Amino acid sequence: MRRSLRFLLALALVLPLGFPLGARADIGASLMLQSDARERGLSYSAGRPSAALSLSWDGDSASYAGAALSRARFATQPPGTYRSSPWLQVYGGHLFKLSPEIDLDLGLRGHQFASISRYNFAEAYVGLQTEQWLLRLSHAPNYYGGHQATWYLEAQRRGPVQGALWWVLHAGLLKAQGQGYVVQSNSQRWDARAGLSWSPQPGLEVQLAAVAAGQGGPTTWTGDEARRTVVLGVTWAH
């Protein structure tokens, strides 16, 4: 696992310089900086700034794949202490054209935590998407290694404000299935995000968004950071 993390980091540093990987593939790399890394409404950086390095590949056949490397901080005992781990996310899928504007998206996503491997899990997803909206359902048979299945339904929408300024919206609902540990005896948790996205030049995006998450749902061993916050993020893509 450590070897694969070093290999991913090395690739991410080389690819922006124009490393050729074949005429039929579109390779991209990006660096994202956030004031607080939020996944499905919860903080995975203990409310602290975070960085993520990612690679993406888009094939001519509408297949795609990618990977992202960041760091997650999970709550431990005593309260207020955390255990940190490199977090590798890998994904791959295929787009099927349903109409000139709408694609059907089928794929898989895996999560690996180098220092806390018992939290590793995978999920499958199916979705509909256009250039301005997305509707997706994800299913994880063993969410965060907790021997509990989950379903996550999410919707995203974006639209122009003026020039390079766009508004962005996201809403999600995470539902635990079957027996297992849930927070406050509630098997589901909602999350939402609303903000503005500004792209002053190609490959650069600045986003300011309000993020909120409800109580309940399956445990993810995150801390007790605020369920409502404002997140500033900057992404450079090549």
TrEMBL record:
<dbReference type="Pfam" id="PF09694">
    <property type="entry name" value="Gcw_chp"/>
</dbReference>
<protein>
    <submittedName>
        <fullName>TorF family putative porin</fullName>
    </submittedName>
</protein>
<dbReference type="InterPro" id="IPR010239">
    <property type="entry name" value="CHP02001"/>
</dbReference>
